[in-house]
Amino acid sequence: MKSAIIAGVFAATAAMGQTIKQSEPFFLKVTSSNLTIDGKFLYSCHAGAALQTLCLGSRDVPTTNVNSATFYLNTTVYEGKESDTGNLIWNLVLAPGADGSQQIVSEPLTFQYTPGSNVAITWFAPGYPTQPEVGFNNSALFVNSYPDDSHFTDTYPEQFTSTRISNWYACWVLAGSYYYNALSWVTAGAPHNPTCQSVSVIKVDVSA
Ligand SMILES: *[C@@H]1O[C@H](CO)[C@@H](O)[C@H](O)[C@H]1NC(C)=O
Ligand SMILES: *[C@@H]1O[C@H](CO)[C@@H](O)[C@H](O)[C@H]1NC(C)=O
Ligand SMILES: *[C@@H]1O[C@H](CO)[C@@H](O)[C@H](O)[C@H]1NC(C)=O
């Protein structure tokens, strides 16, 4: 009797499992105290085969069906509870197959680092292993930084904490072999790249 109940609970848990939930589509725009870049929308721009970074475009609200300006947040739902952080997604649309079918590759935002700089390029690439966990606080994009090592001592900590940081900058970067004014991430401290301008990244609902 007891084992039957346990088996039943186990089966229900396994069936519920962990699922991925994709948000409604949204646009992203930067806000900045620098009026040259304030209010510009972000567009996925070509940096190599199936590789993209996030370029600053115009201030005009993108038209609803512009794929390069359309992003999603993928969160996980586990036992009915949805996380408020996840992966920032852009869909790479491939050329239609011979049968005319449309194929997309769901690409999560990653950061591409350079050994000698604290400025990382925003990067969309298929099947990339390390993805920063991101979320929105009052529409402003943040990254979960874990662990927060700023209070580390020489003994094993009682707990590791994460912090929500928004070290976004618009910088001139080398993305693949392309030179773009693109959204960038500064790991810590002042940007090594002198062109970087501090920005916030704001979610704009497609229907808004
Ligand atoms: C994002 O979620 C959608 C819908 O569940 C899924 O098709 C897609 O593969 C997910 N992307 C990633 C990178 O996990
Ligand atoms: C504002 O950003 C532009 C474009 O990156 C740059 O040329 C300009 O120097 C910046 N202005 C200030 C006051 O930093
Ligand atoms: C969200 O942003 C507000 C400022 O807009 C800040 O006061 C608050 O601490 C943030 N909350 C989280 C959970 O990061």
UniProtKB/TrEMBL annotation:
InterPro entries assigned to the protein according to its UniProt record, in alphabetical order: DUF7907 (IPR057229)
Domain DUF7907: 23-203
Cross-referenced Pfam families: DUF7907 (PF25484)
Protein name in UniProt: DUF7907 domain-containing protein
Lineage, opening ranks: Eukaryota, Fungi, Dikarya, Ascomycota, Pezizomycotina
